[in-house]
Design goal:
Blueprint lengths: L13 E5 L2 H5 L1 H9 L2 E4 L8 E5 L5 H10 L4 E6 L16 E5 L12 H8 L5 H16 L19 E5 L6 H5 L4 H14 L5 E4 L2 H4 L16 E4 L5 H7 E6 L3 H8 L5 E2 L12 E2 L12 H11 L2 E4 L4 E3 L1 H18 L4 E3 L3 H11 L6 E2 L11 E4 L10 E5 L16 E5 L12 H8 L5 H17 L18 E5 L6 H6 L6 H11 L4 E5 L2 H4 L15 E2 L5 H4 L5 E4 L3 H8 L3 E4 L12 E2 L13 H11 L1 E5 L4 E3 L1 H10 L7 H11 L10
Parallel strand pairs: 1-2, 1-3, 3-4, 6-7, 6-9, 7-8, 9-10, 10-11, 14-15, 14-16, 16-17, 19-20, 19-22, 20-21, 22-23, 23-24
Antiparallel strand pairs: 4-5, 5-12, 12-13, 17-18, 18-25, 25-26
Helix pairs in contact: 5-11, 14-21, 15-21, 15-22
Length: about 675
């Protein structure tokens, strides 16, 4: 948040009188203003009050006239540079605002808070600049922009082109830079003259693509060298293939700087005149030379007021990036709609909530060849099908068992295989390999997540009671499993039953204290795997919360149980006799056969980042939106996760009586 606004976000508040209907209609805008210390009002200001205007909008004159008459200070409000998934004209609320007491950032004729930051702030704090570099990396990695609804499957043009950026007619940022049709055509001519023989691609504005506003370029400007790009291709993909970027005052010019370009600028946007652009006009008031990180720190960290829609509070840019990564990732999977098969009836309502935000899921008997929609299948239902996405419960699932028909907070989607099947590659394996090296911010995010999970005592199902009194000695926890579970059938070889697991653990550790924990589905009588463990184990830990048990043991022995992964989070040594997703990376003692392709050696933080941040999708039952893992953790801790309805509870009791016929209801 801008340092000059920190006071207003505290105990002191200002009444903000507005004369633009948008302030009244947009609830999110009013909420961000309220959290920042501004109470929106109608009427006329008095001493100590402020007048709010929206940038240089057509209605701004109303507020400016009132402010002049009553000598009231002005607060200029604009959307932040990372606004939302879709444009505001599509009805989407912003994730941040620019609250400027001096002027507007795009108007070079008067100072603004951003210009003051760029010209006067030291911008030399190491921690601040590190945050800026890391945030720039994340924005480019996830293809985020002011509006981020880009289809990453759309291929950009072949590289080697010059990119000319269109803007919308009459936009205040264009007008402030003296832009008009003649200026844009001059830019197009110069782009061709300075790049003889090169292709020129005109990039349409997102609001033009959405049909909201007209751009300056049209088909009349096209030629054998000049083409108009109307597809919603990521600007980051376009910038990667461009040999030059030409803009009047578009935010894409700012993003071009972040991508390593030195764009040719024909207007006077905030990022011009700082040594990072080739400027058509001289800017005598801007004499400072900045680095990319300094520019980003001022414009994206210090200047905006960011908002967290899940916790309803102001936040830092890192939290906004978490939000946008979750929401854009879900949109990019869901925006074409889905067909689905192999889904039990009780799961369908929740699947609609998680994947049907943009188009309702269509349930079919199998993939439809003629459909352009992706097809999802519950992973256990169709192992060998191709060109499908397999769905399975995530690793932070719920408060309650899936076998008890409790809906999940998280699901994983895998277009290659599925995490529990080591006989073929999976998307999770690729993600783990890619996280062999982490940036500092990724390392810190994974570390904070581990700390929060372990301090809150969270696990996959978050059920069970306190632990019994345990004997002294070297304690080994043996994790029982459902014996007909797909992870056992596909991920084990010689040791495939709970009895064999117990026997192997005892033979290898004759003097240890063996604690056997049955799987909760087996304890509940819902799945197969019951075993008489007294001959091999010293303690049978029934109805015990694994998160309470793990800190009391020295080792975990398992075939493929997720309990082994949860033990790694708590620093407990793990021995595997199968090939769970977390085995084979150098973090476990592996007595079973693991795939040779798992050659990467990630840290525990890398494994956690891939498994709990990159791989799953999380659902916020409060806002009913996709959310980051941190929000899901909050809900699990507070007990806000979905619960089984009355019908599901009845079905759960019936299936308990039919546990030996689980294939009927699973």
């Amino acid at each position: 948040m801008h340092p000059e606004l920190e006071q207003s976000a505290g105990s002191e508040r200002s009444r903000l009188f507005v004369y633009n209907g948008g302030f009244l209609k947009q609830r999110r805008v009013r909420r961000i203003l309220a959290l920042a210390g501004y109470d929106v009002r109608l009427g006329l200001p008095k001493d100590g009050d402020m007048v709010g205007v929206w940038g240089n909008s057509p209605t701004a004159y109303r507020g400016l006239n009132v402010a002049q008459k009553y000598t009231s200070p002005i607060l200029r409000v604009e959307d932040a540079f990372l606004r939302s998934l879709h444009p505001g004209r599509d009805g989407e609320a912003p994730l941040g605002l620019l609250l400027d007491r001096e002027g507007v950032h795009f108007d070079p004729t008067s100072p603004s808070d951003l210009e003051n930051l760029l010209s006067k702030h030291p911008l030399d704090d190491t921690a601040l600049l590190n945050r800026a570099r890391e945030a720039m990396e994340r924005i480019g990695e996830f293809h985020l922009s002011k509006y981020s609804a880009f289809d990453l499957n759309l291929a950009p043009p072949a590289p080697g082109y010059v990119l000319v950026v269109d803007q919308t007619q009459g936009d205040a940022a264009v007008t402030a830079s003296g832009g008009d049709h003649a200026k844009f055509r001059e830019m197009l001519v110069i782009a061709q003259e300075e790049n003889p023989g090169a292709r020129v691609i005109i990039k349409s504005h997102p609001e033009t693509l959405a049909g909201h506003r007209t751009g300056y370029f049209s088909d009349q400007d096209l030629s054998d060298r000049v083409s108009l790009l109307r597809d919603p291709i990521s600007p980051w993909s376009l910038l990667e293939g461009a040999v030059g970027v030409y803009t009047l005052s578009s935010q894409l010019g700012f993003e071009a700087i972040l991508a390593g370009h030195k764009p040719r600028v024909f207007g006077q946007p905030f990022y011009a005149g700082l040594g990072l652009t080739q400027d058509q006009d001289t800017l005598p008031n801007r004499r400072r030379t900045l680095t990319r990180a300094q520019l980003f720190a001022a414009a994206m960290i210090l200047y905006p007021t960011w908002y967290d829609p899940y916790r309803d509070q102001l936040c830092e840019i890192e939290t906004v990036l978490n939000t946008l990564e979750a929401q854009t990732g879900a949109w990019r999977q869901d925006h074409k709609g889905w067909t689905a098969s192999g889904m039990r009836l009780w799961k369908r309502k929740h699947l609609q909530k998680m994947f049907g935000r943009y188009h309702k899921l269509r349930f079919t008997s199998g993939p439809t060849r003629s459909s352009e929609k992706p097809h999802m299948v519950w992973a256990s239902q169709d192992r060998d099908a191709e060109d499908i996405v397999r769905i399975e419960d995530g690793f932070l699932r719920s408060r309650g068992l899936g076998a008890s028909l409790v809906p999940p907070l998280s699901l994983v989607t895998d277009d290659l295989g599925i995490y529990y099947d080591p006989t073929r590659p999976s998307r999770l394996e690729e993600l783990i390999s890619a996280r062999e090296t982490l940036r500092p911010d990724q390392e810190q995010r994974a570390e904070r997540l581990i700390t929060r999970l372990t301090s809150l005592g969270l696990s996959k199902y978050n059920i069970g009671s306190s632990i019994p009194s345990l004997p002294e000695g070297h304690r080994i926890l043996v994790a029982g499993q459902v014996e007909d579970d797909a992870s056992i059938l596909l991920g084990t070889s010689t040791v495939r039953t709970n009895l064999d697991l117990l026997r192997t653990a005892r033979e290898a550790n004759p003097d240890a204290v063996l604690i056997y924990k049955p799987h909760p589905d087996v304890e509940a009588g819902l799945r197969d795997g019951k075993v008489e463990a007294h001959d091999w184990a010293d303690v049978i830990a029934t109805d015990v919360d694994p998160a309470l048990l793990l800190p009391e043991v020295h080792e975990v022995w398992t075939m493929t149980s997720l309990l082994g992964f949860e033990a790694l989070l708590r620093g407990v040594k793990v021995t595997t006799l199968g090939a769970p997703f977390y085995a084979g990376w150098g973090l476990t003692t592996d007595l079973g056969s693991v795939p040779a392709r798992r050659g990467a050696r990630p840290s525990l933080m890398g494994l956690v980042h891939a498994s709990l941040i990159d791989y799953p999708r999380y659902y916020d039952p409060v806002t009913r939106q996709p959310c980051p893992v941190e929000v899901a953790v909050d809900h699990l801790a507070e007990g806000h996760s979905p619960q089984a309805g009355p019908l599901n509870r009845l079905l759960s009791k019936l299936q308990g009586a039919m546990a030996t016929h689980a294939h009927i209801w699973r």
